[in-house]
TrEMBL record:
Keyword Metal-binding found: no
Classification via InterPro entries: NUDIX_hydrolase-like_dom_sf, NUDIX_hydrolase_CS, NUDIX_hydrolase_dom
Membrane-traversing stretches: none
GO function terms (MF aspect): hydrolase activity
Compositionally biased residues, Basic and acidic residues: 69-78
Entry keyword set: Hydrolase
Pfam families to which the protein is assigned, alphabetical: NUDIX (PF00293)
Protein name (Swiss-Prot/TrEMBL): DNA mismatch repair protein MutT
Residues spanning the signal sequence: none
Amino acid sequence: MRIVCVSTPGGRELFASDLGHGEDPHVAVWQHGLSLTRPLSATRDGEEIVLTVQGAPHSHGQVRLRRPRGLDPDLHTEPGEVPQVRQRVAAYGIVTSPRGLLATQFSDRTHVPGQWGLPGGGVDPGEEPPRTVVREAWEESGQRIEIGDLVAVQSDHWIGRAPNGTLEDFHAVRLVYAGTCPEPTDPVVHDVGGTTSAAQWVDLAAWRRVWWTAGARSLLDKNL
């Protein structure tokens, strides 16, 4: 992934650089003496995804340490076992409709079975991130949605085991879009046997009563 920081939407470029493995986009911008004020777009340039953000100068110096890498507290490794380095870019949607907020439940193929998140998933090769959300919303809930603005970027970095047992040095970058569903229906999971076990429309007045993942809860606190 490449990150481009501009002064205003369509304005002059302040800097552009590759996003290193484990590097948070907010920290990358901070290290250039700027604060990430707003994500603007994420587009594909060949095999690379280019994240464009708006930045503004800050007054706290130009050096900030990288956010610490997490470590699964229950992790057991074999002598000499080396984690595979993996960076995964994914796209998700905060999707609303007259029936409420669209939520998807994680299956037992994940590390958070039973918890709820937002529709979305990994960006496929050659796929534009907004299209990822449209595709995943259909696969995970049977809803046809429309994508709006890019509203947030999240990043996590940890060492742990994937659901298949592979030891990974894993960097997750999540692009989060606003979305709407003009004609909501009763949710149905089409991708049976995957990482989604169920989907539902959640009343916007009661969304805090749902057992969200920490990441989804943080996003909803800031964007609902």
